[in-house]
Specification:
The chain is of the alpha/beta class and 425 residues long. It has 14 helices and 13 strands. 39% of the residues lie in helices and 14% in strands. Helix 7 crosses helix 8 and helix 12 runs parallel beside helix 14. GO terms for molecular function: pyridoxal phosphate binding; succinyldiaminopimelate transaminase activity.
């Protein structure tokens, strides 16, 4: 009671709905692919006679190299210190050194390189830095199919995603020439992924020439997601990087930011360690954003990352394991479905229409009958320009050891043979 004894006025408890007190742009986000997969499999009990094999999530399963584990143990004293958002000079120098060796490009480690907590958070945060959502009709162009972070980053930055469909006839390259001029004129950010997820396609020098010309004409930033760059199958055919392409075309990194990660290269997805590099003016603003965002990389992970970026022997060994898997599994799958060895990355992008099933039906029945998980391609794409370019495909992540991948592939072969016999009956 108040001191004067008067009754305290009641406060209405239904004046505001808590759902109205959050960013309304969150309502524009679509369900993540693996949640869709969970719903698809709801109520399905796979055969207990077969152990589960998952080709669904692109999480590396190879062992983390001992040199990285040793570096972690040797740097545990770093836990007693707050990390600097800009990272240590040692880490920036190690990353710049790797870029120079890998791409033949010299960057200023102080201004053109920035460590990040994995490429995923940086891909998202970059849009929040680059995109001015107050400008009418702001657009972010994304490949289709695509890594769903691109779309979410665009939407929460106040922009509209525009999807550039991949074309199987062009090795799943996007047809950027088909994008209308009025869309390019409103574009503030272009996400590209090379080698691509889920198709494994690598952007060619001619493609980069086209993209740089468009960036020069319309003034948008290119964010090049290259986290799969070190997973390829021929040491004489190394995937072209965006910084390397820029150098070959006689240009600098203006309006170009490349993002990479140790997760796939060095089998440390739990470390969440990567980098952004390129345009110094953009990175300066990005650093400001991240200072408030609070995603500084742990001093322990920074020390371990220095060791990882400085060693190539474990990367070559890792690549050889992937090459062995793809050499074995690709022809097995190709005997029953339409697929070919990708340019790079650790996915097989498989056309399942020959099975007579949709991509979702294929995934569901394969899971039920053979306890193998694959990801429907339609979950990785959006309906755009009259079609969903992921429809009719499934993504197979060959991340486990050779024996498990081979067994999983054989189950897919057996499943498809069973479908063929049923159709013939």
């Amino acid at each position: 009671m108040p001191r004067d004894g008067a009754p305290r006025p009641s406060v209405p408890t239904t004046l505001f709905d808590s759902a109205d007190l959050v960013n309304p742009l969150l309502d524009t986000l679509q369900t993540y692919p693996f949640e869709k997969l969970r719903v698809l499999f709801a109520g399905v009990t796979p055969t207990a006679a077969l152990k589960p094999i998952s080709f669904g999530i692109g999480e590396p399963k190879h062992a983390t190299p001992a040199l990285i584990k040793d570096a972690i143990v040797g740097s545990l004293d770093g836990l007693a210190s707050y990390p600097a958002t800009a990272g240590t000079e040692a880490l920036r120098t190690a990353i710049a050194g790797w870029i120079a060796r890998r791409y033949g490009v010299t960057l200023d480690a102080a201004t053109e390189v920035l460590p990040v907590s994995g490429s995923r958070e940086a891909l998202f945060a970059l849009a929040q830095t680059v995109v001015d959502g107050s400008r009418p009709g702001a657009v972010v162009v994304c490949p289709n199919p695509f890594y769903q972070i691109y779309e979410g980053a665009a939407l929460l930055a106040g922009a509209t995603p525009y999807f550039a469909n991949s074309d199987p006839a062009r090795n799943f390259a996007c047809d950027y020439a088909a994008i209308p001029e009025d869309v390019w004129a409103r574009t503030q950010l272009l996400y590209v992924c090379s080698p691509g997820n889920p198709t494994g396609a690598v952007i060619t020098l001619d493609d980069w020439r086209e993209l740089f010309a468009l960036s020069d004409k319309y003034g948008f930033v290119i964010a090049s997601d290259e986290c799969y760059s070190e997973i390829y199958f021929d040491e004489d055919r190394v995937p072209l990087g965006s910084l390397e392409a820029a150098r070959a075309l006689g240009r600098d990194a203006t309006r170009l930011v490349v993002l990479s990660s140790l997760s796939k290269r060095s089998n440390v997805p739990g470390m969440r360690s990567g980098f952004v590099a390129g345009d110094a003016a953009i990175l300066k603003r990005f650093l400001l954003y991240r200072t408030y965002h609070g995603c500084a990389l742990s001093p322990v992970w920074q020390s371990a990352s220095v060791a990882a970026w400085g060693d190539e022997a474990h990367v070559v060994e890792n690549r050889a394991m992937y090459a062995a898997k793809f050499k074995t599994v690709t022809p097995m799958i190709a005997s029953v479905l339409d697929v070919k060895l990708p340019d790079a990355a650790f996915y097989l992008w498989v056309d399942v229409r020959r099975s007579g099933l949709s991509d979702t039906e294929f995934a569901k029945r394969l899971y039920a009958d053979y306890n193998v998980t694959v990801l429907p391609g339609s979950y990785l794409a959006r309906d755009a320009h009259g079609l969903n370019p992921g429809s009719g495909f499934v993504r197979i992540a060959l991340v486990a050891e050779v024996a498990e991948c081979t067994e999983g592939a054989q189950r897919i072969v057996d499943f498809c043979h069973g479908l063929a016999k049923a159709r013939a009956a």
